[in-house]
Specification:
The protein is of the alpha/beta class. Helices cover 32% and strands 14% of the residues. The chain has 10 helices and 13 strands. The longest helix has 22 residues. It starts with a helix and ends in a 50-residue tail after the last helix.
Length: 383
Amino acid sequence: MTESTATSLSPTDSDYNSFPQIPTKRVLVTGGAGFIGSHLIDILMQNGNDVICADSYFSGSKENVAKWIGHPKFELMRHDVTQPLLVEVDQIYHLACPASPVHYQHNAIKTLKTNVLGTLNVLGLAKRTGARLLLSSTSEVYGDPEVHPQVEEYNGNVNCVGRRSCYDEGKRCAEALCMDYHRQHHVDIRIARIFNTYGPRMFFHDGRVVSNFIVQALRGESLPIYGDGLQTRSFCYVEDLARGLLLLMNCDYIGPINIGNPVEFTIKELAEKVRAKVNPKLKIEYRQMPKDDPKRRQPEITKARKILGWEPRVHLDEGLQRTVDDFKSRAQANPKNLFIMHQTEAKPVDDDDEAEQQPPASKTMDGSYGAGEGGPSVVEAGA
């Protein structure tokens, strides 16, 4: 299979020298063909692990892992995590769940099924095989937080019946299942609460603020800001995040750990940075603030620093430039990527429809900024 454009943008061998060297294992990555999962697989493969990538391709893509297809230590399977998976592994990175608002709101019932049934299935697999399981949770479990920055002990302020609740409450349930399987069945679990993540291979139209701004800027459009633009987010570069997940999987700590960049930027600052890198002449347009969009998200990462020896290394300016370059490269290879027709609403589908249905190509339904972005894609068996 020939390498794709996305493949050529993978880290070089020298880039991996900064990643920790961990004893090799047989590893399952659910949602492995998604945004975060594919970067994690790059590290795992470079370190010599045997890797099984399970993905339904709802928002993931074979192109993201194309460089590994045909490698004797890599196996790619199309699978929906709401169905049991029978493999023999030492470690499970469970990234399967729709992570961007446009995807998880497209079929809320399927999102809940993925979070609950999918997590039950991989926990059952971990119990049977004795594998260690890492759940990719999210900062969305904190909701619209009243405590800043958010520590792992904070129980959150979540709207349990809002449009975002299928994701927020689904992840909270997944965390509870992991802890109960640990207490009752002694399953060896790890929980990563992932904050905003960005970088190469992001889906062009996933509704996240970084990808939205870059696509709009490349199309020469005004950059929309909802509210006054003073709401803040902390943005972690995807390679920093993948390194944190690897360290968390291979530490001895059981319980949630925040993985994110604690440096806050306002949405207005982000828009200005993207504009400066793509087209300084673009205008910024202010729109009405959507409901349930958190005003602040900032991780407290003391545990990550002390327990994992981890902290982010890539500054937003550097990471944004890499991301813009990646979007430009993919857009040049296929200009249609920038001009998929936007929809304001995705048609709901029956909750029993197959996970392989295509995600909507649209902006976030509620215009929000996707404050918590966990694993890569839906039922990627799906992050």
